[in-house]
Amino acid sequence: MPLSSATRPMRRWALLICLGLAAAVTGAATPANALTPEEMLADPVLEQRARDLSQGLRCLVCQNQSIDDSDAELARDLRTEVRRRLTAGQSDADILDAIRDTYGDYVLLNPPIAPSTWILWAAPAIILAGGALLVFAARRRDDIPDKDSPLPARETPARSPEHVSLKSSVAGRQAVALFSLVVGCSLLIYLALGRADLPDRPLAERTAEIAALKDTAQQDNADRVARFDAARAAVEAEPERVSNWLELAMAAADAGRSETEVTALRQAMVLTDDDPTIVSMLAEALSRAADGQITIPARALVEQALAANPAEPRALFLYGLAAYQDGDYAAAIDNWQQLQRVSSADAPWMPLLADNIADAAAAGGIEVPVSPGPDAADIAAASEMSTEDRDAMIAGMVDGLAARLEDNPEDGPGWQRLARAYDVLGRTEAAQDALVSAADALIADADAQLAALQAIVAGNAEDRLADDADRLLARLVEMAPARPETLYLRGHFAATNGDVEAARAFWQQLLDRLPEDAPIAGQLRAAIEAL
Amino acid sequence: MINELGHFALVLAFVLSVLTGTLPLFALRRGWHGLAHLAVPATMLIAAFVFIAFAALISAFLASDFSLALVASHSHSAKPLIYKISGTWGNHEGSLLLWIVILALFGALLAMGGRGMAWALKIRTLAVQALISAGFLAFSLFTSNPFARLDPPPVDGRGLNPILQDPGLALHPPTLYLGYVGLSMAFAFAVAGLIEGRIDRDWARHMRPWVTAAWCALTIGIALGSWWAYYELGWGGWWFWDPVENASLMPWLAATALLHSTIVVEQRGTLKSWTVLLAILAFSLSLVGTFIVRSGLLTSVHSFASDPARGVFILGILMVAVGVPLLLFAVRGPQLVSRGDFNIISREGALILNNFLLTSATVVVLVGTFYPLGLEMVTGARITVGPPYFDATFNPIMGVLVAAMGIGPLLAWRRGTVPGTRRIITISGVITVVLGVAIAMATTAFASGISIAGIAGIGLLIWLGSAIIADITYRLKPAKAGVAARAARLPAPMIGMWTAHFGMVVFLAGAIGNGLFATEVVVRAMPGDVIDIAGRQMTLRTVEARQGPNYITETAVIELREDGRMLAVLTPEKRFYTAERQTTTEAAIRPRISGDDYAVLGDGTAETGYTLRLYRKPLVSWIWAGAGIMAIGGAVAGIARARRRPLSTRAARPADNAYDTGSTAENDDDAAQKAGV
Amino acid sequence: MQDRPSGRPLRASFLIPLVAFLVLAGFATAALMATLRGERDVSQLPSTMIGKAVPDVVLPRLDAEAGDVGPAQFAGAPLLVNVFASWCAPCRAEAPALAILEEDIRILGIAYKDKPADTRAFLQQYGNPFVAIGVDRDGAGGMALGVYGVPETFLLDADGTILLRHAGPIDRRVLEDILLPRIQELQ
User: Fold this and answer.
1) If you measure CA to CA, which chain B residue comes closest to A35?
2) Which CATH number is associated with domain A370-462?
3) ipTM for the predicted complex
4) Measured between CB atoms, does C146 come within 8 Å of chain A?
5) In chain C, which residues touch B (CB < 8 A)?
6) How confident is the prediction for chain B on average, in pLDDT?
7) Which residues of A touch B15 (CB under 8 A)?
8) Do C125 and A150 touch (CB under 8 A)?
9) What beta strand segments (E) does A363-419 contain?
10) pTM score, two decimals?
11) Where does A31-115 sit in CATH, by number?
């Protein structure tokens, strides 16, 4: 399952704010469209008043421009507002007051005289008066003739002594010491900062490399287009095939055509009757189209997918990402750890997932909580303890987990972990029960059914859990009728129930599909014989 | 390996700076002169390493080596060569490196030169300079490393912000930095003097060339920035009282004050502690300016590289680089002995007034710039302090300053009016009143009335202009020798002063001419339409698509006529930069001495017509010309002074002008007499 | 000061520059720290509307036949007014937050300078948490509310008094620390 790197969590919000500000800044830097003739009033006297007023009003979104000089939208609106009020016959003071009422003192380039600006407006007078006082005070002081004018200077030679030269004054050893000090410190700093391993890369020497890069890019682009076209042709030819739509969606995603991707996935969703995997793919596509943000509609889809399959990996991932984007880092970590648990250890997204969890933990200042319930590491740690300690620890963990699972029986992976723990404790029956619960929770997971059935067979619990076994086997047959394990188990349970014919038929079927020299082929033949 | 070589060179420069900033100070205290002397070669080495680093970075930009993250994010293979080079400093990291390069260059110049300078003062100054370098190198290496690499390198770069792809802006930062960093030399002198406990006339004499150079560069840098804003931003404005602009204005004001007060220390040995303080403040204010720009604390039209995290680092540098010297000043300053026997009506008095007004103006700008931030921190309220505030507070102070500029140069050192001063003042006063009234009446006639500030401005302009002319004529008035002979004997510093002050007149003429008499027309025009503006006719011929080196444009072709006579074809553009995917507008300007014709193309289509903003801006280019003349005047005075022999060897020679009245107290009176008569 | 000892004491006037600098640096530090902690955002402006009655904004409903809508129609219970637009990227970001708020309070949407068709597509894609949506084609409604950028969110009490204004997207912090507590207070 390719979880696109575009959906990696980023500080999207911060980024977008920055973009917004950048727009404001460049707005300030591309000037000259400030006042347009259409805005101007026909009456030259009124227009002159409008200009004068505009020059005293600050464009709030720009960096220190009057609205008369600015081409920002807001400046234009304010210019229009000033002129509207002028036409309505308002006085200059009224207009300034009205705008100040709405936007505050900040909008006035001429700071109004108010308590907050008393110091500002008094400053020149204070400075001049204070300065004059200081000057006169200093003059009076200096009027006293300074007879004994003591120069407190330290005695140092006034001129460079002729004899001072490097050779005579700095001994060779000192010079060497200084030199090595300089070079040594510099090397240390340089090694920390510099990249001596990187050669210069002037553009002139990179023509071949750049041409190759461009070629590759072009080739890639051509491939993408070809794939996209092929996929679209396939969809047109056989619109009822889900896989065609999925291929089109992937090709569209690859070609950056998010609208087609979304349409294709919606089609696939309809065809599969809301298959959770496809629903979550659609959620991902919508998010990618919104620059990575898990939008509200995407969230609804994620929730729909998780309702249908609580272990749907992509949906779990997106769910965590949504929490991350909301700044709810604890929830994000929780969801992603959930995903870690339902995934096999070598799933391709595991490294990304670990990164994300670390990211979220750093962003939220959270210590990554130990994944709930005993995991492999806990058990390994436990095996190094004394027997009693170990049993006590495992028993403690197991009880906690079991209690939690009673409240939350849909947690299939939790049941599986519980089963492993019971296994370690030697509570075989409890382990079998837990696996059956796991299989019931993970109703669409063939492996879960299989695991439970194998545990039943291995523990000779066919009689004790006969009903459960029937149910699980039915599901397994439904999902994976051709798997060798399925065939074997069907044969086994048929034999247990006394249906020798059926058992022989299933096993024979299996035998036919096994290579002649498979090691279990012999055992199987023996079993058929024994029937 | 060029990139990594540059990186390593930068690290070497950092380590060396740290050592050079500390060891010599320690060695001087212990009397280890040989070790202290190492500061000189070490400073040169730092410069060499920094240059290597900068050259490596430029070469990476030239070669479009996108394995450098900086090149990848600020350059593009299709960019014209000049912007590949200027792209090196058109970004935070690169501009920081440029700053460091200039810092190192100035350090090396002092290390190589500084002849006749007290040896220990030179070593201490170099050490302080190295400490500043160390701070900025650390900032560069650890927070804004220009040599950060990308692996693998991208296929192409992201380009340079189009608004920065402009010849004016290619030069603006380097000149501005020359100014800022030149002030760092004055700062280093001041701190070294405080450490040493000796501030004397020799100290001032050696510091002054740096102050002058810094001031000239700052003047030009600010003018370039303003010029750039005028033609690139397309609003026709040239000064916006933006925090970033204020950040460059404040050091300039302080440097102007410093330039004048240094003369007092050099000539009269007084105002020492004040001059030290100004030297510290001028550079501190440029650091504060950098902080504003880089931290993004205050909103500004110019903030192209702001990052609060970097702000923390700069704030740290600021605390140390400003706080420690100010503390040193608070402790040591009172010990600096000044001799203060002068009359309030004297050259000293005038220069004190100059310093008082310039410093007050600086503080007003500082308060206006930071007040919103302070208020927000204290009460949470947000206000804007915009141009109206500065017009109402800063301009009057500068008006008084301009009035004083007319009188100050006429006064002699120590005491009293020079005979004839009164006459000069009277003559220029009368001219001012008569002309002022005449112009005020004339203008009321054809403009709908001019504000009091406008009339005052015109009056001041004429007052200063006539005072300078009166001063010159007076000094050239033939006595025994002819005019030419007297002119030839005029001291160069005095010519420099006149030139600089005259630059102010030109600047004022531009500001007032543009401020009071500019015309603006905003229309929607169809091709073929004729628009009248200030007695001229502009005809929109067509709007066509064109292709530039790395952009495509919509170009309007506008014919400018006066009385049917074709003056020019204006082609304002709207550019779309393809690599950066940004639109800019390019105003079309026909600059003439009498004023600019200025056209901007706005939105529109052939069906609906195009928005055109057209201006007639009388005398506007005088603003920048005035700044240029000021800088030239400063340079003339500075070069003339730098070529003089050291004070000690000419102590006995009587001076020949009011600027340079001798060097010892004994011949002051004598010199003042000679200068005046 | 007649005869000055060689080691002279500190003079108050020589401390002025240092003190002034420390004050300035203090403000800068405070502002910088607040910015770094995310508490200060230069793009956030305090609203003058807080404590005032909500302006009488009446806008056509998005579902055209249903007539006009405005905050006044929802008097009697607290209301959240959210000004949004399909062209505004941060509005997408706050959609999930609005979905959470929807469970606690009624939300009136104002589609600011947006084409109705675009608004509908936006709601389709990002979900519709609003009880009603007013179409503010020319931005007059936004202007009456003092909106200077989208999204902006206003919290009104049952009397229609504006209690709170948030400019910019509602993120987790704003949702949990500011909006939800105030809403719970109201109920």
Assistant:
1) B522
2) 1.25.40
3) 0.84
4) yes
5) 8-11, 14-15, 17-18, 21-22, 24-25, 27-32, 34-36, 40, 42, 45-46
6) 83
7) 182, 185-186, 189
8) no
9) none
10) 0.77
11) 1.10.8.640
CA distances from B347 to B268, B405, B504 (A): 10, 11, 20
Asked if C96 and A137 come within 8 Å (Cβ–Cβ), the reply is no
Residue B602 — pLDDT band, cuts 50, 70, 90? confident
Do A312 and A306 touch, CB atoms closer than 8 A? Answer: yes
Q: pLDDT tens digit string along A22-73?
A: 233 333 334 445 777 888 888 888 998 998 899 899 888 776 778 888 777 8
- Contact list, A322 vs chain C (CB under 8 Å): 96
- pLDDT of A141-159, one tens digit each? 654 433 333 444 444 444 4
- Domain's final residue, options B618, B640, B667: B618
- The pLDDT tens digits for A394-451 are 666 677 777 777 777 777 777 887 787 777 677 788 888 888 888 888 877 888 888 8
A166 contacts in B (CB within 8 Å)? 34, 37-38, 41
C89 and A16 within 8 Å at the Cβ level: the answer is yes
Comparing CB atoms, the residue among C14, C27, C32 nearest residue B311 is: C32
Structural domain for B126, as ranges: 1-161
Taking the alpha carbons of A477, A478, A480, A482 in that order, is the dihedral positive or negative?
Answer: positive
Reported as half-sphere exposure (CB side, CA atoms, 13 A), residue C55 has a value of 16
In degrees, rounded to 5, the angle at the alpha carbon of residue B175 between the alpha carbons of residues B171 and B180 is: 145
Return the closest-CA partner of residue B313 out of C29, C27, C20, A185: C29
Residue with tokens 């723990």: A421
C94/C162 same-domain check: yes
Provide the residue range defining the domain that includes C19.
10-42
Please say if the pLDDT value at position C6 is more than 90.
no
Could you tell me if B311 and B398 lie in one domain?
yes
Would C160 be classed as within a structural domain?
yes
Which range of A134-143, A311-320, B14-23, B480-489 scores highest in mean pLDDT? It is B14-23
Q: Residue B55 above 50 pLDDT?
A: yes
C1 found inside a domain: no
Same domain, C38 and C80: no
> Could B326 and C18 be called an inter-chain contact, meaning their C-beta atoms sit closer than 8 Å?
yes
Sequence-separated (6 or more) residues with CB below 8 Å from residue B404: B350, B353, B354, B357
Vertex A79, ends A73 and A80: CA angle to 5°?
90
In angstroms, the separation between the Cα of residue B431 and the nearest Cα of chain A is: 30
**Is the four-CA dihedral B426, B431, B432, B436 of positive or negative sign?**
positive
- Chain B residues within an 8 Å CB radius of C35: 296-297, 308, 311
8 Å CB contact between B660 and B675? no
One domain for residues C93 and C30: no
Cα→Cα distances B300→B245, B250, B386, Å: 9, 16, 12
- The reply to whether C48 falls in a domain is no
Length of chain B counted residue by residue: 677
